[in-house]
Specification:
The chain is α+β, with helices and mostly antiparallel strands and about 130 residues long. It is about 50% helix and about 10% strand. Helix 1 crosses helix 3 and helix 2 runs antiparallel to helix 3. This is NTP pyrophosphohydrolase MazG putative catalytic core domain-containing protein.
Length: about 130
Amino acid sequence: MGEMNGMNKSINELVHAAHENAKSKGWWDEPRSFGEIVALIHSEASEALEDHRNGKLPTEVWYEAKNYEGQVIERAQQPDEEWKPCGIPSELADIVIRVFDACGRYGIDLEQAIEEKMAYNATRPQRHGGKKL
């Protein structure tokens, strides 16, 4: 895994960190159904698709903040942590963070699930399924 706060983190450590952060921010103060959790993951994917439809490149990143009048302002570089990262990379990160949070909520060993699925996928024939998209 990549560097995070100066330490290497395993997938399951990131699952734990994402879930603890979500709990501390109140996301689990009220019960959420599994369907709602999946819908939230899907909404992040839809935001990535919307950025693509708006002509943003997959690697394009920008930062937004609201000024004192409540208007959204954008910058190419993040001046400080209070500026929200935007773009497809950020939306993909949001998908992963929501998946991590869900796995933390339900006690899913995501590392094991990924390893098992990748091992299985390696045995599948090329372009299996025949779907165009």
